[in-house]
Amino acid sequence: YLQVILGAKYCANADIWSMACLVFELVTGDFLFDPKSGHRFSRDDDHLAQMIELLGDIPSSVCRSGKNSKEFFNREGALRRIDRLKYWPLKDVLADKYDLPREEVRLLSEISNDGSWQ
């Protein structure tokens, strides 16, 4: 969905991303992301912020990859309208919030994180 928001080209990875979100929802009963608009930011801004909080900073090459990139990111690759992020990695969310067994957390976080934002 990152590429869709940024207006970048996307391929089968977008489908894999959607599947990973669906797996999270099936396992937990909650949405992985539930973005909302605020007084100073859009729903898409919040969605990007939630992705960064969960998966870490987006590489600058990816931040600049779409026709809408400048709307959301500055030259340094930081979000334009949201500056305070609360990082909470997926494995910690699964363990702390959902109290999943350690082995399930390991398997789910390995499946969902191939080490890249591509």
Strand content: under 5%
Total helical segments:
7
**Sheet of most strands:** none
Distance between the termini: 11 Å
User: Helicity, in percent?
Assistant: 40-55%
Topology pattern, helix = H, strand = E? HHHHHHH
Name the overall outline.
Answer: globular
As residue ranges, the low-confidence spans are none
Question: What class would the helix/strand composition place it in?
Answer: mainly alpha
**Beta-strand segment tally:** 0
| Rg, alpha carbons | 14 Å
Mean pLDDT value: 90
Q: What does it look like?
A:
With 118 residues, the chain is mostly helical. Helices cover 53% and strands 0% of the residues. It has seven helices and no strands. It has helices spanning 2-6, 12-28, 43-55, 60-63, 69-72, 90-97, 102-112. Helix 6 packs antiparallel against helix 7 (102-112). The longest helix is centred in the first third of the chain and has 17 residues, at 12-28. The mean pLDDT is 90.
Give a topology summary:
Elements: H1 2-6, H2 12-28, H3 43-55, H4 60-63, H5 69-72, H6 90-97, H7 102-112
Helix pairs in contact: 6-7
Essential attributes:
118 residues; mainly alpha; 7 helices; 0% strand
Short description:
It is built from 7 helices and no strands. By secondary structure, it is mainly alpha-helical.
